[in-house]
Amino acid sequence: MPQSALHWLPEPALAALYAELATMLRPGGLVLNGDHMRDDDSQPTLVRLGRALIEREEQRRLPDGLSETWTDWWASAAADPALALLVAEREARRVDSEHHGSPAGLLGVHVAALRSAGFAEVGTLWQRGENRLLCAVRPAVLAGHAT
Length: 147
What we know:
Layout: H1 11-24, E1 30-36, H2 44-61, H3 70-79, H4 84-92, H5 107-116, E2 121-128, E3 131-137
Antiparallel strand pairs: 1-3, 2-3
């Protein structure tokens, strides 16, 4: 599944992007965001069940427990002589390797920003674990804007 980079944006920048997209789309136009978006903890039982399903799938796919975390991946890249200088430059720029913990990695942040931008319908079209395709539909007329 293609991944976007919107989870890297701070919440105000994400909201501004969605607001700008709302003004650029024709009526009925769609915003599709394929990304890794976690549920927040407002529904703890559903979050717990969803995480249990993800863990179960990982155990089935990788029975020897050979999965690699994002931090492990970057450590492996840093250990590769061909990549070490690039990884050092990345670290010097203070790019957070645990970006999936950022607020913009939460589904609710995207839904709220899209609704605030005036999108009429917002929902998940496809999902596998925490990977989703989020869709937002531009209404026929945006509040305060002519079509």
